[in-house]
Amino acid sequence: MLRSISLTGRVKLGFAVVGIALGIAAPYIFDRFVIGLITLALVGGLFAQSIDLLGGYAGLITLGHAGVSGTAAYGVGYMAAKAGAGFPAQIAVGFLAGMVAALIFGVMAMRSGGVYFIMVTLAQGMIVWGLSIRLFRITGAENGLTGIPRPPGVELYWQYYYLTFAVVVLCWGMLGIVVNSPFGTSLKGLRESETRMRMLGYNTTGQKLYVFLISGFFATVSGILLVYLNGFISPSTVILAASAIGVLQAILGGIGTLVGPMIGAFIIVFVQNVVSIYVARWPTLMGALFVVVVLFARRGLVGAISDGWNRWLNRNQAPGINEPVLTSTNQPSGP
Amino acid sequence: MTDGVKSVVPPTSATTDDTARSGVLGSRWLLWGGSIVALALLVWWILTQMTATAFLAQILNGLSFGAVLFFLASGFTLIFGLMRITNLAHGGFYLVGGYIGISVVRATGNFFLAMLVSAILIMLLGLVTERVLLRPIRGLEKPEVLLTIGLTFILGDMSLAIWGGDPTPIPKPDFLNGALNMGGFIYPRYRLFVIACAVVIGAILFWVEKKTRWGAMVRAGVDDRETVAALGINIKAVFTGAFMFGAFLAGFAGVIGGAFLTLLPGQDFEVLLFALAVVIIGGLGSLKGAALGVVIVGLIDSFGKALIPELSFFTLFAPMAIILVLRPRGLLGRE
């Protein structure tokens, strides 16, 4: 059976098996602190993957996705901390809140593209942040909502880790199905040239709304996972920096791939935790990382590795064509 | 739509969209009439909520805030119109400009010197940004946007390190302190001064754009960069000049706005949100659009804050959503 898969496929399969085995073994190897960080990175990675589905696959970079995941988290937080509802109601309301936000944002943004899309989503994310600060009765303003217990059965850190791991692996699989489907391929067409796709008869406006909703679904899941992980939610979860970090993780790891955002999230989460022991100026470092990555490493870690791998595979042949991600200039600049 | 596409699509297909839309909404006059009636009803409703004096004061509040936004949005829109660069660091330029203004006022006590020094220093910052950071990725629209957002994080965090996190107002010159009594209607002098500044600078900008050689180069550059370059005009110098001028206005806005809006960390993103709302509503790339946008956004914000303080910020959301769905290019955006 293995023979029928290409060498690259077999290597990928190998990494997946090792990754899942490591994931299952992790609580036996690492202590509570590290497992906490890994859980955080998994949740962040899922969030970055949802951004990458829009940005890397469909070419619609968003700087407001924390508005979607944050709305879901606030939905859970409100039901838990203010309404005192049970867990099914908390999760249902959180899920609904996230999806409604994704629907409204998607309808607003679906007629724009390129840099307009970035501007519109940035404004959306900022408005959610503004609401989180001022709608005191629902969001608790600057203090946020505290005392959100985890559902029974996953209260302990390692139990919650396994839940997160399972959900993330499941979502990863679902994302894999989406991006490898004909719809996923049509998204790449949207990224390369929306005008051409429209001329081919695609309803690009509808495509954009669908992909926004699908991406919003995964962002919502990550938001719900995050609020139970932390046990609280505050405006700092929905600030622009939260959305921007997701984008940074996706680009750093390798935009246009599913493994890239996850790797990026692990790097950022661990770097942030190590660095903040020594320096207080994390935002500066993050901004500098943004600038450096955008200037010198737009294809990210996975991009660089796959370039090297392909060169090694084709070392006796002519160089292959690199997929243009974040590098094509022929995008329509307007809606 | 890119310039290349325009020549491919026959003109008829570009107009079908418009005719279809006017068919749905009836004639253009009906739309205008409806908007005017709706606006009149809104004003009537607001007047039932507050006295006529308070109403006038709110209008002036909105216009003075809009005036600050005008300095920001006009530069932002100029940079975008010419170079297709979405400079999200504009908010950061504003904040740093304001803080430099504070230092200069504290050192010399001269408010107008502070305006000049800030504007010039931010102009130089703009020069460095354009030449060093943006030049290597010229034409790659999305990386350009992401780089400027990274730069904003650095600028914001560095200002926090240098000037601290306490909200600080810039001391105003004595003759602008206090209120002016206009036949029983009392209003702060400084805000009237800000409105007057915006009117004068706006008039100069319109004059320069329409009547001078510089304006002609800019207008030509907005329409067709390649032809302008082919005519022997150094388009790169025009780009750099425009970027520096936009930064100059942002630094100026930081001082003039910092004197009544107080400077605090995070305000870079707040003013950026308002500037984006202005260009989304008014239309990107046109000075007229920016002028119309700042009046609308300023008034919405001031009445929103007065009538429904909990939802200030959110009041921008509805008009933005409506405009984005009906006219994705903004009210006066170029088709």
Summarize the structure.
The complex is a heterodimer of chains A (335) and B (335). Chain A has 335 residues and is mainly alpha-helical.
Explain this structure.
The complex is a heterodimer of chains A (335) and B (335). With 335 residues, chain A is mainly alpha-helical. Chain A has one domain (8-313): ABC transporter involved in vitamin B12 uptake, BtuC, CATH 1.10.3470. Helices cover 73% and strands 0% of the residues of chain A. Chain A is built from 14 helices and no strands. In chain A, helix 1 runs antiparallel to helix 7, helix 3 (66-82) packs antiparallel against helix 4 and helix 7 (157-180) crosses helix 8 (182-192). The radius of gyration of chain A is 20 Å and the shape is globular. Chain B is an all-alpha fold. Chain B has a domain at 64-266. Chain B has 14 helices and two strands, in the order H-H-H-H-H-H-H-E-E-H-H-H-H-H-H-H. Chain B has a two-stranded antiparallel ribbon with strand order 1-2. Chain B is globular, with a radius of gyration of 21 Å. At the A-B interface, helix 4, helix 5, helix 11 and helix 13 of A face helix 7, helix 12 and helix 14 of B.
Residue fraction in strands of chain B: under 5%
* Sheet of most strands of chain B: 2 strands, antiparallel
Order of SSEs of chain A: HHHHHHHHHHHHHH
Regarding quaternary structure, what we see is: heterodimer
Strand order, main sheet of chain B: write it out.
1-2
**Alpha plus pi helix count of chain A:** 14
Content-based structural category of chain B: mainly alpha
What distance lies between the first and last C-alpha atoms of chain A, to the nearest angstrom?
A: 47 Å
How would you characterize the largest beta sheet of chain A?
none
